[in-house]
Specification:
Layout lengths: L1 H32 L16 H6 L21 H26 L17 H4 L10 E4 L5 E6 L3 E7 L5 H15 L2 H4 L12 E6 H6 L2 H42 L1
Antiparallel strand pairs: 1-2, 2-3, 3-4
Helix pairs in contact: 3-8, 5-8
Length: 253
Amino acid sequence: HVSDFLVRGKNLALRGASLARVSRRRARVDERGTAAGRQTSFPWRQDPPNWLKELAPTQNLAGPAPPPCPPRRRRGRCARSSAMATTYKPYLNCVKSTLNAALCLRNFPSQIVERHNKPEVEVRGSKELLLNPIRIARTEQESCLIEGSVNSVRVSFAIKQADEIERILCHKFTRFLMQRSEQFVIMRRKPTDGYSISFLITHAHLEKMWKEKLVAFIITFMEDINKEISAMRIALNSRARIVAEAFLQDFAS
């Protein structure tokens, strides 16, 4: 085992040499940088390697730990969007929990017409098959209506429309989406009266898709549509400001 002994001796010598280099570097930095208030920058900040602890257990080679960086404050649009998402979250959480409870559907043929299977929430032929509608309101202009039945659920959303600009943007955007309702599968072509957009979920959808995924899609869709309308309004105001400045420059000159 002479070879093993030589290898161990060689490793010990290399470790001793590295320790000597680190000690010399530490001494040079202390001599030159202490007056200027500089800190030693080593690859390890919190704790040196174990082999270095064994060789020099009494020396503090790690150096002082750097002070923690203060958290950055969010400013501008990011802060406003974060605050809006925080205030909007309880409303969406309530809608999510209610949808999870309402989406308990089963295959139920029509009791009036033979060999017909229609969404009872749309047909409304048998009152005993309908559930009490639930309305969740965040404000007077922003609310959600969940109408349940034995084999289908209809979900309608009223999007916030503070002024005439938001009313026009919301109408154009939802109309654009509802014209392509086949791609969304569960979207209705026409919303319920008094609401901006509606979804219809039947037992056939739950047989093909996950209930949790459907609920998550509706919640994400409502988050995105509010962001899109807000972004379109900001872009519209910016464009109107630029046009007004260009128009008034002719009068100024």
